[in-house]
């Protein structure tokens, strides 16, 4: 290595590379021109500059795309649209695995994965572009075309403008790669001595630095514009004043919340409420421009409502427990909130819709969200007198943006994926024969009433409680049928009745506890519930797909 040059080692390597070219015509001079080592350094140095050029080109492409997306439509950004396409095509088993492994960070992990793939592609194209500059740049453009195709095929894609972010990003990225690759391979024609090589290397580094700074600024401005687009939604949410309900929620009976450490809160705070959806960027809906359209088969009076029109109607307030079909036995995707909303049956009746059992033509209600998600519910269930609603409030607050602001649907007793459309904007009456909504296209069941389940909240699996009285406690649910009994079994012993907290309503979960006289050693405790129809929860274990997990929850503990 040539000592004495005040630059980083890999720049010296670059210098060695250029010197090596000259070695063919000039006698070697300096200190480190031994063939094997130098050509190794040369390759290393070439791949280092190719790698850097490719990474910067990818970074430039994504940042410019985010900038344009921020100006046009944030949801049309390449990471979001490609992520959305991946989510839509992910087989149920992989999705289940992702939810199990990464929980609610699954989307973050997906985005990191996409960035990693883009970085790798960038590196590949960067190294390629050192020898094939045009091909490298063309490669970037090709990914731009793929990105814009993904953008245009998203269900919420409104117009051709959604292709712009990917196109603009790819054009800039390709240009950056072309220029950087040119600088990276340039050998000064009349170079004489080590200095000239170093200067061309400096030219590359300077270009790389400028590119990095420009790309980072574009990305930052993009972020800023995206945040500003969301402010309309945030501001309209903050200024929304919820009307008082015409029909308030029945007061919760005293004691619905057991005083046992480690048991779930009866009412789940909004911040702790589980979230399950396919949205990579949460839809930011401005309440002022939001509309709900009701139309379709058997609708004699199609109508479109604004939020103010909905809020002017008599509202109901109800405690309802919502559950996700992807909840494993003992899983966390369940929560209870006090919801405020417009009774859905009233709106449907006004539109002329009748239940199928009363001669109505439509047996499926398809709800559509602003991001193109579709969820289908049985019209019979929605209109059978239960408190199906278009919710605007959650625990005294306007709906949080994550939970569907400004309006979401809820049907007590049905899993979320067949009832609980967030960011709803359209209700279409149709038939189960005529239309399969999003999850049904992906092999989930057309109809999915919530299965009876009991969960042990405390003790936690593998806990080591002290011998003596150990309080087993948890929740049980069978929405719209209610819970009438919970039983506990220790190891292979007899089933014993747990103590039940009062039932708030048939649409909410119910807490239970059991004072267990625990003896030292390993024990398995199991719980099962009986619903309001007298049906005992089945022992048969099923997977979550196609219509929800069944089986008993048990926990192994070691009593000390
Ligand atoms: N627009 C939209 N609504 C949706 C979904 C979705 O992916 N997109 N997921 C559904 C599912 S599977 C469930 S379980 C509930 C979850 O509601 P939460 O996130 O408020 O808990 O929302 C439902 N509504
Ligand atoms: Mo769900």
Tell me the distance between the termini: 66 Å
Helix-strand category: alpha+beta
Strand content: 15-25%
Cofactors and ligands present?
Answer: ligand MTE, molybdenum atom
Helix content: 25-40%
- Overall mean pLDDT: 89
SSE sequence, one letter per element: HHHHHHHHEEHEEHEEHEEEEHEEEEEEEE
Broad shape: globular
Low-confidence blocks of residues: 1-34, 187-194
**Largest sheet, spatial ordering of strands:** 2-1-10-5-6
Concise overview:
This protein has 560 residues and is α+β, with helices and mostly antiparallel strands.
Describe this structure as you would to a colleague.
This protein is α+β, with helices and mostly antiparallel strands and 560 residues long. The protein contains 12 helices and 18 strands. The strands form 4 sheets. It has a 5-stranded mixed β-sheet. α5 (106-131) runs antiparallel to α6 (133-152). The chain is globular. The structure holds the ligand Nc1nc2c(c(=O)[nH]1)N[C@H]1C(S)=C(S)[C@@H](COP(=O)(O)O)O[C@H]1N2 and molybdenum atom. The site of the ligand Nc1nc2c(c(=O)[nH]1)N[C@H]1C(S)=C(S)[C@@H](COP(=O)(O)O)O[C@H]1N2 has 18 residues, from loops.
């Amino acid at each position: 290595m040539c000592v004495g040059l005040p630059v980083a080692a890999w720049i010296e390597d670059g210098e060695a590379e250029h010197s090596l070219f000259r070695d063919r015509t000039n006698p070697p001079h300096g200190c480190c021109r031994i063939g094997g080592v130098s050509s190794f350094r040369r390759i290393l140095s070439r791949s280092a500059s190719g790698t850097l050029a490719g990474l910067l080109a990818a970074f430039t492409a994504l940042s410019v795309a985010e900038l344009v997306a921020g100006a046009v439509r944030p949801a049309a950004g390449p990471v979001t649209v490609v992520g959305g396409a991946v989510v839509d095509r992910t087989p149920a088993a992989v999705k289940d695995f992702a939810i199990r492994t990464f929980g609610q960070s699954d989307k973050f992990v997906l985005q990191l994965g996409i960035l990693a793939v883009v970085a790798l592609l960038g590196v590949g194209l960067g190294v390629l572009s050192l020898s094939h500059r045009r091909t490298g740049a063309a490669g970037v453009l090709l990914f731009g075309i793929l990105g814009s195709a993904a953008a245009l095929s998203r269900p919420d894609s409104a117009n051709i403008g959604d292709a712009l972010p990917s196109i603009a990003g790819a054009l800039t990225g390709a240009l950056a790669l072309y220029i950087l690759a040119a600088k990276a391979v340039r050998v000064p024609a009349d170079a004489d001595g080590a200095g000239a090589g170093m200067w061309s290397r400096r030219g590359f580094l300077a270009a790389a630095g400028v590119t990095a700074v420009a790309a980072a600024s574009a990305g930052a401005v993009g972020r800023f514009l995206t945040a500003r687009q969301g402010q309309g939604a945030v501001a309209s949410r903050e200024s929304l004043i919820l009307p008082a309900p015409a029909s308030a929620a029945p007061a919760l009976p005293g004691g619905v919340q057991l005083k046992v450490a480690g048991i779930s809160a009866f009412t789940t705070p909004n911040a702790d409420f589980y979230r399950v959806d396919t949205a990579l960027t949460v839809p930011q809906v401005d309440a002022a421009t939001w509309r709900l359209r009701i139309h379709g088969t058997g609708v004699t009076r199609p109508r479109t409502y604004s939020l103010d029109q909905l809020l002017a109607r008599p509202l109901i307030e109800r405690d309802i427990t919502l559950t996700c079909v992807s909840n494993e036995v003992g899983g966390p995707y369940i929560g209870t909130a006090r919801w405020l909303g417009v009774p859905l049956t009233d709106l449907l009746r006004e539109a002329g819709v009748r239940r199928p059992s009363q001669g109505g033509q439509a047996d499926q209600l398809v709800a559509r969200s602003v991001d193109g998600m579709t969820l289908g519910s049985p019209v019979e269930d929605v209109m059978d007198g239960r408190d199906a609603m278009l919710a605007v409030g959650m625990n005294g607050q306007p709906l949080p943006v994550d939970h569907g602001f400004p309006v979401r649907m809820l049907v007590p007793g049905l899993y979320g994926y067949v009832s609980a459309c967030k960011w709803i904007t359209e209700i279409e009456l149709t038939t189960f024969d005529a239309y399969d909504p999003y999850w049904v296209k992906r092999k989930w069941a057309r109809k999915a009433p919530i299965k009876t389940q009991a969960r042990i909240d405390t003790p936690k699996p593998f806990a080591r409680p002290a011998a003596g009285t150990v309080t087993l406690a948890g929740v049980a649910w069978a929405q719209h049928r209610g819970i009438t009994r919970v039983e506990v079994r220790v190891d292979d012993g007899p089933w014993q009745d747990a103590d039940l907290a009062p039932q708030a309503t048939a649409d909410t979960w119910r807490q239970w506890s059991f004072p267990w006289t625990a003896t030292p050693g390993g024990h398995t405790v199991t719980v099962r519930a009986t619903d309001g129809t007298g049906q005992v929860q089945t022992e048969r274990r099923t997977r979550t797909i196609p219509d929800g997990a069944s089986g008993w929850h048990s926990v192994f503990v070691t009593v000390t």
